[in-house]
Amino acid sequence: MPYAGPSRGSSRGSSRPSHILLRDDARQWTTAEPERTVLGVIHNITSATRLLDLLAPFEGDSRVHVVFTCTGSSAFENGTREFMTARQLPWISWEEAKREKFDLAVSSSRGGELHKINAPLVGAPHGAGYNKNLRREPGAGSREPGAGSRKPEAFGLDAEWLTHDGKLIPSAIVLSHDEQRDRLRRGCPEAVPISVVAGDPCMDDLRAGLPFRSEYRAALGLTPGRKLLVLTSTWGPRSLLGANMDLVRRALAELPHDEYRVLAAVHPNVWYGHGGWQLRAWLAPYLRAGLLLPAPETDTWKAALVAADAFIGDHGSLTLYAAALGVPGLLGAFGDEVVAAGSPMARLGAALPRVAPDVPLGLQLRRAAAAQAGDERLAAIGGLVTSRPMRAAGLLRRLYYERMELDEPDSPAVPRPVTLPLPLPAERYGPVPPPMFVDADVRQGPDGTLVLRRYVAALQGAVTGHLTDPHLVVAEGEPDGRWTGAADVVLARAPGPRETYRAAAERVFAEHGGCWLVAFPERDGAAGCVAVTRDGGMLRGWWEGGAALDLGVAASVLYVVAADADAELTVSVRVGGAEGVLRVVG
């Protein structure tokens, strides 16, 4: 006889279940006939994204049906209903979840009245292990008698969060590393027998993505030779954004625009605590300068960590994941007060250098990369993320099916890399490119190559060691008057059909008092530009060999060589990872 679902208690009274699977006449309405029903417990968006990782071992098994609920106990509950609706998660109210019986429940948080769930409950972390200190609000739940007389352990490993009226809440506690069992023994010794070291599914997915690093880099818009810096921020006043939001500006200001791409992976609690509109408004100047800001409910951050060349983080889980992948990094902030003593995060906080406020950021990143290559201490800390690498999917599935008393599927449970294409936000550009300071150095290039480095002018601050003797390039139509009068080079629109280059240049010179050179695109669409200098000189430049760089690069080359352009010149140019040869005729 087909299994009709878990037995229904009479405690639900006369109310009708909101999901057809839980109705007494479910077989009349459902298409599949699942043999077990699992409750996925969501606390907020952060726990929801982790919960979906934890539930991946059920994929492909039509004998199991999952329904979701939200405890309603998080200060960051905003957006949770929309998250479930957008992903078509079958959900029921928390009141209904407490009334019904299930074959299994899985939660990645400890908040809410979990003790009222009528099912074997598997509790797992919603980050890279157990690293934070968090105390219950007064009156938010019963604590283990005598718990206040000892030093508390990390959130998730302490009796304060694992017991209710002296009884254990979960039926199983998922640990990602063996070292957590020792801390659990100190925080809640009675929970040690129900603990299961099952590894970290998120870390496994990251490792599964390593063979596809080049694909992720391409999806993130990284051209050859361009590096990716990932800024990771958790939430709260001690986070990177809370304590040092100016670091986002510094990254975009001090790192050459063509050599680095900057991505900010921001904790969902920031997005949903303040609102996505507000976060984007705060970061708007940086978004206009090229900052990537992926939505928090996507897995883009995983692909970004795999693709990263460097990171700057704080005490959030992404910092620990990045270090575990061997990515060199710095700390832009760190909440020592909220990090559990002796945890892997506390060790990482002691091992990583902090960002210095008065040293160019590029120099700090280069030093970090050199110092951390082969660093055994950092490798050991990264190894504390999981002691069951690449096995979490299989170990979690074994745990779930044992609790449900159901045979596992025959196919193996394996980690999955992030799928493509990446759900990136559409990048928006103004009708004019941002003003750029351009450093030109022929000495740094091989065989006399002219090396150009461009920096977003509007974001520059007190640290100027990354700039040597730059010229300022501004596009015609730039609305900010600070730059129109100070520009050395103006990128102008093509002259009208009956307008000469010189006449058009005179108009631009009149509007830009400090300008020395005006650069126009070729009328015929050729790859190059025509430049007119304030003293009446005219130069032309054409890219040779099919490697055409942009108008701004050509204009900067002509500005640098203008004094020597009486005869024909051939200039090898490098900007970021791109190279080209510009033939110049005076």
Written description of the protein model:
It contains 22 helices and 21 strands. It is of the alpha/beta class. The radius of gyration is 29 Å and the shape is elongated.
Describe the secondary-structure layout:
Blueprint (H helix, E strand, L loop, with lengths): L25 H4 L6 E7 L2 H10 L9 E7 L9 H7 L7 H6 L4 E4 L13 E3 L35 H4 E2 L2 E2 L3 E4 L3 H9 L7 E3 L3 H8 L4 H7 L7 E7 L6 H5 L1 H9 L5 E7 L1 H7 L1 H7 L1 H5 L11 H8 L2 E4 L3 H8 L4 E3 L12 H8 L9 H12 L3 H7 L9 H13 L31 E6 L8 E7 L14 E5 L5 H4 L4 E3 L9 H11 L5 E5 L6 E6 L4 E7 L6 H11 L7 E7 L2 E8 L1
Helix pairs in contact: 7-14, 8-14, 11-12, 15-18, 16-18
Keywords, separated by commas or semicolons:
21 strands; six-stranded parallel sheet; disordered N terminus; 29% helix; 586 residues; alpha/beta; elongated
Give the gist of this structure.
The chain has 586 residues and is of the alpha/beta class.
Widest sheet: strand order?
Answer: 13-14-20-21-19-18-17-16-15
Question: Which percent bin holds the helix content?
Answer: 25-40%
Shape summary? elongated
Overall residue-averaged pLDDT value: 91
What distance separates the N and C termini? 91 Å
The number of E-state strands comes to 21
Portion in strands: 15-25%
- Main sheet, how many strands, which sense, barrel? 9 strands, mixed, barrel
Structural class: alpha/beta
Count of DSSP helices?
22
**Low-confidence runs (pLDDT<50, min 5 residues)?**
1-5, 7-14, 138-149
